[in-house]
Amino acid sequence: ILNYDNMARFRRRTCIILLLFILFICSIMMALKTLRPDRAGFGDPFGLGLLPELQQRTVLLDSKQNSLNRAQGDTVTRVTNLHSIAVNTMKASMSPVKKLEEDLSSPNYNFHIFYYTWYGNPQFDGKYVHWNHPLLPHWDPKIANNYPKGRHNPPEDIGANFYPELGSYSSKDPTVIEAHMKQMRSASTGVIVLSWYPPGMADENGEPTDDLVPVVLDYAHKYNLKVTFHIEPYKDRDDRSMSHNVKYIIDKYGSHPAFYRHKTSTGRLLPMFYVYDSYVTIPEIWANLLTVSGSQSIRNTPYDALFIALLVEERHKHDIHRSGFDGMYTYFATNGFSYGSSHHNWASLKAFCDSNNLMFIPSVGPGYIDTSIRPWNNHNTRNRVNGKYYETAFSAALLVRPEIISITSFNEWHEGTQIEKAVPKRTGQVVYLDYKPHKPNVYLELTQKWSEKYRKEQEQWLM
């Protein structure tokens, strides 16, 4: 009996010790779990930031099409929905949903983001548009002969170095448009700068998109965002056609609650137009439209607006001033590529603008890589360095205390400047870049972080 009691006590002690040991191991594992990398903010894992070549993997272009896009629901239903939205253009009101207001960061109307609606796929467009972008040859035939030719073959092989979380989407898909609005709102941007061609016109690789503007406006309003226009260099763009197109935009879209108007220092509320490649038109032509004495002048008329010119070279600042523009932006996300895109020139450009009553709108970007469509252009690649390049650009922009900061871009996938969600993808011989070690929304989060920082610093500037 004594031996039996001793054995029973021994078993109890052993069970208790084992239980305590298991609890100890579990507590250690829980403690270690809290140290996993995705809790480490935006810092790099040790050493990764010193090896940019790991981030800039080469995209090979000889993959074959394996399958169509992942199923996105009933195609007929989607097309019908899009048509009904487009027909009901310029709805008088579409009140933002209160629930959305509670869940998302407040919009910053001094953060403007470039947005492209030129993408298409078979479900909504009958074919791929822009995802199948051709490889652009170098202008020197001797150099061009050293690089591949042809075009991309979606959905596995697209004209981009990164791959969208939404796949090779159509810009006409209402669920895509809404997802984009939600992402832009979550990033605390406020104004969408919509790439725009006149009705019936498009870039050389795209299709006309003016019919999409009402849908974009409606969804933007739902998320309390505003929309302004990035007027592209369409064929025969001059003072007369610009006058016609500005009147068209304001007459057709100006009454929509999502149409952006900027409050000037004098208290006027004016539309704003970014004019891409403005420098290809001589100042005298622009002056006809943009100066009070011009033959096509819209100044002091119902169509008056703020016109923002693209500055690439330093000499453009004088042309912009003579043309009658109201300000300048730099667009390119490549620090050092042009005079305007070089961060160290922003202080002198801001000083010039201040002394000439012009707005200076620096453009910040997360990085740049376009070798999927310009395979010979490696020297202009700007590594993202896991978000550090983007933050450096924001820091440089805040130093000059601009009234507005523009972001290049939400979804210019061809040039790798997008902050839209991207995912890792490898298919055949194509390996896409990604945002690892961070999550697909890291650049949205970084934008939101700097939007809040800008707001706080701006309060100090105005004191």
From TrEMBL:
Membrane topology: Single-pass type II membrane protein
Coiled coil stretches, renumbered: none
GO molecular function annotation: glycoprotein endo-alpha-1,2-mannosidase activity
Keyword check for Transmembrane: yes
CDD domains assigned to the protein according to its UniProt record, in alphabetical order: GH99 (cd11574)
Keyword Metal-binding: no
Catalysed reaction equations from the record: N-{alpha-Glc-(1->3)-alpha-Man-(1->2)-alpha-Man-(1->2)-alpha-Man-(1->3)-[alpha-Man-(1->2)-alpha-Man-(1->3)-[alpha-Man-(1->2)-alpha-Man-(1->6)]-alpha-Man-(1->6)]-beta-Man-(1->4)-beta-GlcNAc-(1->4)-beta-GlcNAc}-L-asparaginyl-[protein] + H2O = alpha-D-glucosyl-(1->3)-D-mannopyranose + N(4)-{alpha-D-Man-(1->2)-alpha-D-Man-(1->3)-[alpha-D-Man-(1->2)-alpha-D-Man-(1->3)-[alpha-D-Man-(1->2)-alpha-D-Man-(1->6)]-alpha-D-Man-(1->6)]-beta-D-Man-(1->4)-beta-D-GlaNAc-(1->4)-beta-D-GlcNAc}-L-asparaginyl-[protein] (N-glucan mannose isomer 8A1,2,3B1,2)
Cellular component annotations (GO), alphabetically ordered: Golgi membrane
Leading EC class: hydrolase
Subcellular location(s) of the protein: Golgi apparatus membrane
Keywords assigned by UniProt, alphabetized: Golgi apparatus, Hydrolase, Membrane, Signal-anchor, Transmembrane, Transmembrane helix
Entry EC number(s): 3.2.1.130
Family under the similarity heading: Belongs to the glycosyl hydrolase 99 family.
Name of this chain's protein: Glycoprotein endo-alpha-1,2-mannosidase
Gene: Manea
